[in-house]
Structure formats: structure tokens, C-alpha cells
Design a protein that fits this description.
The complex is a heterodimer of chains A (275) and B (240). Chain A is an all-alpha fold. Chain A has helices at residues 16-19, 22-53, 64-109, 111-125, 133-140, 144-168, 172-180, 185-222, 227-237, 241-274. In chain A, helix 5 packs across helix 6. Chain B is built from seven helices and eight strands; from the N terminus they run βαβββαααβαβαββα. Chain B has helices at residues 24-31, 71-81, 86-99, 115-127, 145-161, 173-179, 213-233; strands at residues 13-17, 43-44, 47-48, 56-59, 133-137, 165-170, 182-187, 192-198. In chain B, a hairpin with a 2-residue loop joins strand 2 and strand 3 (47-48). Classes of the chains: A mainly alpha (275), B alpha/beta (240). Chain A binds chain B through residues 9-10, 12, 15-16, 171, 173-174, 176-183, 187, 191-192, 195, 272-275, and chain B through 29, 32-34, 51-54, 56, 58, 60, 62, 64, 66-68, 70, 77-78, 80-82, 104-105, 108-109, 111-114, 117, 129.
């Protein structure tokens, strides 16, 4: 404990968290992986046991082994459908990043624009957006553009708000320093505000990653003949519960992959930030 | 702010001393062209200050180093903003860093440094583009007393080497007397300069100056002025 702080922490060599008790940190990291995995395994075992002990009907709650069995049978279908869903939700997430970042940059650049738009943007977001999904079908049809628009519509907001917070949160004295150097607004924006906002942008994008999958699935529920959403609907209409669970598992993988990509990009940025 | 009038000679170190909220920081920012001046003028080399000038260096209470940049890149930050050739200023940046005892820390990030080290880097950043005026807004007031004394000596070292006109805002009487050639005492409501005191201490100064009678008498005199103006500014009921 005692060597975590003190003069050693700022010596000319042996700097930073890596130098301070590597063993302890490695143990902590291992624990961070082991604990959630162990919890998941325990839950699965309990689930399996429960279905067997109380002989729950598979149509109500299939055992994890039933789900795996279904996954083994249906994987070519699931793979095909998951490509539709995965590509669209990745695209929606990327569009949210661009749109959210763009809206934030716009609002950050002008207090007037902020006064005009920001309260309205927030009010707009208070509408339960899922209720609007049929509107998008009316406006844009039943294909990918409709689903993408809906998904971006619900997922760009956290990116916009997060990034705006970051852009406006820049230390005012740093801005003063820049102004004293006769920096242009674009210099201040690019060299100071954007790097300050990056961590905020990424936390917003992580929320967007989960929302964009939700958006695409809802879109598929409503209109599509393809994708995991419509697969789940179909399986539901046939009371193929194990198949629904198998599809949910695939959705988890899509969501995780998306989250993983963003988390990876974020660590790169954070590394550049903190070194 | 009203009735503030003073002039500073080139190469002079002037401390602006006063209680918090007396407008001394605002005055400093006006000198830097960062606050608009409602009435009156500030002239530097005969030209009125209408906006920021690239010949002014500035330091704040916190270091305001950019957390994602290394110490060296932070020191070089003004060069990038001013779009001057980096290679022309790198040797100067390294020289400044070594002068304040930060050699070996060029590639560290600010969070790896102590508060005092961060302010040392901020001094280097303020001087790297060779400004002729250095504006300092309570630069050491967030540091502990020991570090603060060290920083005062580091600042004097640098100032001896690169004599700059310096305006130093502080609310520490001893700091003002130790550093400055002249101390301007500011008063609250209305914000005005009530005294302009010359510090008759020889340079170079070292900590032993703090024990001399001249130093301590001057500190006492300044303390008296500040307390007097403080009392005058408050309604009598406040003392009950």
C-alpha cells in the first residue's frame, strides 16, 4: 500500500501506474475477467438445473443445452441474418458518431445556436422514440434507409450530448492562453477542444452502440423480412423458444463486437491522452 | 475599476498585491488584451492594447498544461499556435526546461508531475516564444508553502537570465516583496491602486533576504495598508 504514493511515483524513472506494483495490478485485472465469467457460469448452471429439476417445458424456458443444440442446427441461418443486422447496426453506430459529433461541434461553436436548438433537442428526446418507429416506415419505406434512420435517430443523442459537454468543458484558462497567443477559433477547436472532448465522445458512443442495435432490431420487428429481428418474430410466432434464445445469443455477440471496437478505439485515444 | 494609473519600465518586476476580488486579475487580463477595457487605456511601447499580443507570456494559478501532451510538447504548444518553425524553438524549449530542473521529464505527461513541476513547465511555456512581457496570475498560490518558496527562487533565476517585464498578481505580501522591484497595492470597491511601493532590496535575492529588517519592515507596512483599506471598505456593523 505505502509504495503506491510518495516520491517514487514522480521519479525520473519508474513512472506511471505500470511501475507501481505490477503484481497487484495483474491480479486485479485477472480478477476483473474471472469474476464476471464465473458469475455467468454459475447462472447458467442454475438455469440448467432449474429446467431439469422442475421439468420446465422447453417452450416456456429451454435449458441452456437446448439453446446450444438449436444454435448448432440453425447457425447458417443465424449467421446470414446476423450479417444484415450487424452491418446495419454498425452503420447506424458510425452514422451516430458522425452526426452526434457534428451536432455537438455545431452547438459548441455558437452560443446562439445552442440557445435555439439545445432545449428543443432535449425536449425532442423526451418523446418515447420507439413510438415513432411506424412514422419512419411511412416516410422512408420498409427497407434499410428507414431502419438506419430510426436507429441513428435514437442513438446519436448520447454522442451529441457527451461531445458537447466535452467541448464546452475545456478549461477556460486554456482558452485564454490560446487567445493570448492570437489563436484562431479553428486552432482552438482543433488543438484544444476536440482533444478535450474525445473521452466524452467515446463514452457517448458506447451508449450509442447499444442503442443502435436496439434501433435496428425494432426496425426489423416492424418492417423487415430479414435480420435477427424478423428471425425472432418468426420463431416467436412458431413458439420456437430455443431458437429465440439462440438468436438473442447472436445479438449479444453483435452488441459485444460493436462495443469492443469502440472500447478499442477509446483505449487508443486514452493512451494518446494519458501516455 | 477606477482611478488605476501606473506605468511599468521595461525589464521591471512589478507585483500587484491585494485581497481576492479586488480586480487584480482583471487588471492583468486587461494588460494581456484578454478583457475589454471600459474606460481609459493601457499602452505598451506607446501603442494602446486593443487585443492579445504575441509578445505577452501568460501564467495562471493552475498550470493549464494540456493533459494529452508531453511536457516538451506542452512547452512547444505556443510555437504550434503561432505557426513558427518548431525546430527553431526546440533548443530553447529544452534549455528552459533544464533551467527549471525539468531535464529528463520532457516526455512525461502532466499527470505524472507534481504541482510545482507543472508550474515550472508552465513558466517554460510562457517564455518559449520569447515574449517581452510576462503576466502571472497568482501562479503559485495553489502550491504548498515549501514548493512555493522553491518556485519563487526558480522564477527569480529565470528572470535574472531572461530579463522580462513582469506583472505578478498575488495576495501574499512576502511573495510580492521577495520577487518584485515595485509592489502596487490594490483596494477593493472601487478597485483602485492605493499605493506604489519601491522594494529597496538588492538583487540577486535569496531566501536569506526574508530575514532582513528591511524586508520585514516593508512587509509590515504593506500589511498595515491592506488591513486599513480592508477595514475602510466594510460597513462598521460587520465588526460587531
Amino acid at each position: 500500500m505505502s509504495d503506491a504514493i510518495g516520491p517514487g511515483a514522480i521519479g525520473p524513472d519508474g513512472i506511471g501506474s505500470g511501475a507501481i506494483r505490477p503484481d497487484g495490478i495483474r491480479k486485479e485485472r485477472a480478477l476483473a475477467v474471472v469474476l464476471p465469467v464465473a458469475t455467468a457460469i454459475v447462472l447458467l448452471v442454475v438455469w440448467q438445473a432449474a429446467t431439469r429439476i422442475w421439468s420446465i417445458q422447453p417452450v416456456i424456458l429451454p435449458a441452456p443445452t437446448d439453446v446450444l443444440h438449436q444454435l448448432a442446427i440453425a447457425w447458417p441461418d443465424l449467421l446470414r441474418e446476423s450479417v444484415y443486422t450487424g452491418v446495419e447496426s454498425f452503420a447506424a453506430c458510425a452514422l451516430s458518431a458522425v452526426l452526434g459529433g457534428g451536432v455537438a461541434a455545431m452547438l459548441a461553436s455558437s452560443p446562439l445556436l445552442r440557445d435555439i436548438l439545445y432545449p428543443n433537442l432535449v425536449a425532442f428526446q423526451l418523446i418515447p422514440k420507439i413510438a415513432l418507429a411506424p412514422l419512419f416506415v411511412i416516410w422512408l419505406g420498409i427497407d434499410a434507409p428507414s431502419r438506419l434512420t430510426f436507429s441513428v435517430f435514437i442513438s446519436f443523442f448520447p454522442v451529441a450530448i457527451g461531445t458537447l459537454t466535452g467541448l464546452l468543458d475545456t478549461n477556460p484558462n486554456v482558452i485564454r492562453l490560446c487567445r493570448s497567443l492570437t489563436a484562431t477559433r479553428s486552432q482552438i477547436f482543433r488543438q484544444v477542444q476536440v482533444p478535450y472532448a474525445l473521452p466524452f465522445f467515446f463514452s457517448g458512443l458506447k451508449v450509442a452502440a447499444t442503442l443502435s442495435v436496439i434501433g435496428i432490431i425494432i426496425g426489423e420487428f416492424i418492417s423487415s423480412k430479414r435480420g435477427i429481428g424478423s428471425y425472432i418474430l418468426l420463431a416467436g410466432s412458431r413458439a420456437e423458444t430455443a431458437r429465440i434464445f439462440a438468436a438473442l445469443l447472436v445479438l449479444c455477440v453483435i452488441g459485444l463486437a460493436q462495443y469492443g471496437v469502440i472500447a478499442y478505439l477509446e483505449t487508443r485515444v486514452r493512451k494518446a491522452w494519458r501516455g | 475599476m477606477a482611478g488605476v494609473s501606473f506605468s511599468v519600465r521595461r525589464g521591471e518586476f512589478v507585483a500587484i498585491l491585494g485581497p481576492s476580488g479586488c480586480g487584480k486579475s482583471t487588471l492583468l487580463m486587461m494588460c494581456g488584451g484578454l478583457e475589454s477595457i471600459s474606460r481609459g487605456t493601457i499602452t505598451i511601447d506607446g501603442a494602446p492594447v486593443t487585443g492579445p499580443r504575441t509578445t505577452t507570456g501568460i501564467m495562471f494559478q493552475e498550470s493549464t498544461l494540456l493533459p494529452w501532451k508531453t511536457v516538451l510538447d506542452n512547452v512547444m504548444f505556443p510555437i504550434g499556435i503561432l505557426q513558427r518553425p518548431r525546430k527553431d524553438y526546440l533548443p530553447r524549449a529544452r534549455q528552459l526546461l533544464s533551467l527549471v530542473g525539468l531535464d529528463g521529464f520532457e516526455s512525461h505527461k502532466p499527470h505524472q508531475l507534481s504541482g510545482g513541476m507543472r508550474q515550472r513547465a508552465a513558466i517554460c511555456r510562457a517564455l518559449v516564444y520569447d515574449p517581452d512581457i510576462l503576466l502571472m496570475d497568482e501562479p503559485f498560490s495553489a502550491l504548498d508553502a515549501i514548493t512555493r518558496d522553491e518556485m519563487n527562487d526558480a522564477l527569480l533565476d529565470i528572470w535574472d537570465r531572461y530579463t522580462k517585464t513582469a506583472l505578478f498578481v498575488t495576495h501574499s505580501i512576502r511573495e510580492a516583496v521577495y520577487l518584485a522591484d515595485r509592489v502596487l497595492v490594490m483596494h477593493r470597491r472601487p478597485a483602485t491602486v492605493v499605493a506604489d511601493i519601491r522594494v529597496p532590496l538588492p538583487r540577486p535575492r535569496d531566501p536569506s533576504v526574508g530575514e532582513t529588517a528591511v524586508f520585514n519592515e516593508l512587509c509590515g507596512e504593506l500589511r498595515g495598508m491592506i488591513e486599513h483599506s480592508h477595514r475602510a471598505a466594510r460597513p462598521a456593523a460587520a465588526h460587531v
